């Protein structure tokens, strides 16, 4: 990846244009979406469709409207997000079968709570209590999906079962974090009180230890920053057995969206722990964050900061020196994943701000370089061929892929690989990255999921 130094003025214009485009996309989906059809997941020929697997994308749908209001103060979008959160999101709060609470509930109830904290929506005591109770419950339910490991570690297990740690759950830890910030705990048998903060830290440490490589001789495929989608354990004794991949090509290559979840999730947890003054896990999380961000910059992306869907994709070699030129979403051999780029852009900016002018121990880049890398990726995504400007296409960010191994993604007529389509998580994270950059460029209060000026954060 070539780290550019985007012009703040030009980037601001691109971000302003994004809000014009995203407004149209949100309203288009609002007009056509039927709740009975399930959560919208990805587009097929430009129209959002559902895909039953787990209901992990609905919070992004309504969260986009809330981000739109946050960025533009256009009140109808606040009402869309608030109304659908009230009417549609309650089942997600007590959903015991998924590891996605931070995606669904912090993107909806959490955004509303944050906006009230920031004085962006009117203070209302009962409305605040409603959001806070929802967030408390969500964090506790997510934390109850727990597999203990030796050495005080453990993890929130994936929908595959108690043996399975998914790397994407690091980004969903925000549910435990905000629940803890609100003073909540998980109560178990005999009224045992379980700290949500300690579970969040234990999960983050387990992810850093078993899902990320550091070039320290772990195995024959040990390259610093390489990331596995899934870590598999023996639940009888807690022993780590092997890496695995559900959505990537193999356990020994890097599924780039999983890498991006790690980048963003570790950086976000570092911000949260710094905010509450807890340094207990900082060294391990910083090691993981810098390793994954360095791997993204040095190994995982094309020159413009956009990755293909997996670093070991079997036909990637047919593209020659693909890292030396911009990603080609219309190539014949392997799809790019713009959603991974949108998530990674935010992770790079957050880690950069956390480090400021410093480098992490063992890291290759300073905080300022990470921020510029994140802005470089964002600049690429805010322009063609990634920004979706055609009114008939309901997606915002083009060339996102969902599940390449299962063949779920739509391949347009005349093409050989998926391209030209969007996903709920890609659209949401492009908007979230743009909102973060907008606040940085304007010198506005820094955007975090736990913003609460009443407590000085």
The CATH C-level name is: Mainly Alpha
Number of helices: 15
Strand order of the largest sheet: 5-8-9
What number is the mean pLDDT?
96
Number of strands: 9
| Gyration radius from CA atoms, angstroms | 20 Å
Shape: globular
Q: Which key phrases capture this entry?
A:
single chain; 457 residues; mainly alpha; Glycosyltransferase; two-stranded antiparallel ribbon; 15 helices; 46% helix; 7% strand; globular
Write a brief structural summary.
With 457 residues, the chain is mainly alpha-helical. It contains 15 helices and 9 strands.
Description of the structure:
The chain has a three-stranded antiparallel beta sheet, with no helix packed on it. A two-stranded antiparallel ribbon has the order 1-2. The model has no long low-confidence stretch (mean pLDDT 96). It has 457 residues and is mainly α.
How are the SSEs placed, and which strands pair?
Layout: H1 8-32, E1 40-44, E2 47-50, H2 58-72, H3 75-88, H4 90-93, H5 101-104, H6 106-117, H7 125-143, E3 146-148, E4 154-156, E5 164-166, H8 169-172, H9 174-181, E6 186-187, E7 193-194, H10 196-210, E8 230-233, E9 240-244, H11 256-276, H12 282-300, H13 338-355, H14 367-381, H15 424-442
Antiparallel strand pairs: 1-2, 3-4, 5-8, 6-7, 8-9
Helix pairs in contact: 1-2, 1-15, 2-3, 2-6, 2-15, 6-7, 7-9, 9-10, 10-12, 11-12, 11-13, 12-13, 13-14, 13-15
């Amino acid at each position: 990846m070539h780290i550019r130094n985007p012009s703040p003025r030009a980037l601001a214009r691109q971000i302003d244009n994004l809000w014009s485009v995203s407004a149209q996309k949100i309203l288009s989906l609002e007009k056509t979406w039927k709740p009975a059809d399930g959560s919208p997941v990805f587009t097929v020929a430009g129209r959002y469709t559902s895909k039953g697997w787990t209901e992990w994308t609905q919070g992004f749908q309504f969260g986009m409207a809330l981000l739109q209001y946050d960025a533009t103060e256009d009140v109808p979008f606040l009402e869309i997000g608030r109304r659908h959160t009230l009417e549609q999101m309650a089942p997600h709060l007590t959903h015991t079968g998924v590891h996605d609470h931070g995606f669904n509930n912090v993107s909806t109830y959490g955004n509303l709570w944050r906006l009230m904290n920031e004085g962006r929506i009117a203070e209302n005591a009962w409305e605040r209590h409603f959001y806070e109770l929802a967030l408390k419950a969500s964090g506790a339910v997510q934390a109850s999906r727990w597999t203990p490991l030796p050495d005080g570690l453990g993890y929130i297990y994936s929908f595959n079962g108690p043996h399975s740690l998914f790397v994407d759950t690091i980004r969903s830890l925000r549910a435990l974090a905000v629940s803890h910030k609100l003073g909540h705990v998980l109560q178990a048998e005999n009224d045992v009180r379980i700290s949500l903060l300690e579970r969040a830290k234990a999960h983050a440490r387990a992810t850093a230890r078993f899902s990320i490589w550091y070039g320290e001789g772990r195995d024959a495929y040990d390259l610093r920053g390489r990331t596995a989608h899934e870590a598999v354990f023996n639940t009888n004794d807690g022993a780590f057995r092997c890496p695995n991949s559900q959505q990537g090509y193999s356990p020994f290559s890097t599924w780039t969206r999983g890498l991006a979840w790690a980048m963003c999730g570790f950086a976000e947890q570092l911000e949260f722990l710094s905010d509450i003054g807890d340094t207990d896990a900082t060294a391990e999380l910083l090691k993981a964050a810098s390793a994954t961000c360095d791997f993204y910059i040095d190994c995982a992306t094309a020159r413009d900061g956009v990755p293909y869907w997996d670093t070991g994709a079997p036909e990637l070699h047919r593209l020659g020196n693909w890292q030396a030129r911009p990603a080609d979403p219309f190539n014949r051999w392997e799809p790019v994943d713009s959603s991974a780029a949108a998530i990674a852009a935010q992770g790079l900016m957050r880690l950069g701000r956390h480090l400021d002018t410093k480098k992490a121990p063992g890291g290759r880049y300073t905080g300022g370089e990470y921020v510029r890398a994140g802005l470089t990726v964002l600049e690429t995504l805010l322009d063609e061929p990634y920004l979706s400007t055609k009114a008939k296409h309901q997606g915002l960010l083009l060339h996102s892929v969902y599940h390449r191994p299962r063949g779920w993604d739509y391949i347009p007529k005349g093409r050989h690989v998926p391209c030209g389509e969007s996903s709920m998580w890609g659209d949401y994270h492009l908007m979230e990255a743009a909102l973060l950059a907008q606040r940085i460029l304007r010198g506005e209060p820094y955007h975090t999921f736990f913003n609460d000026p009443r407590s000085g954060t």
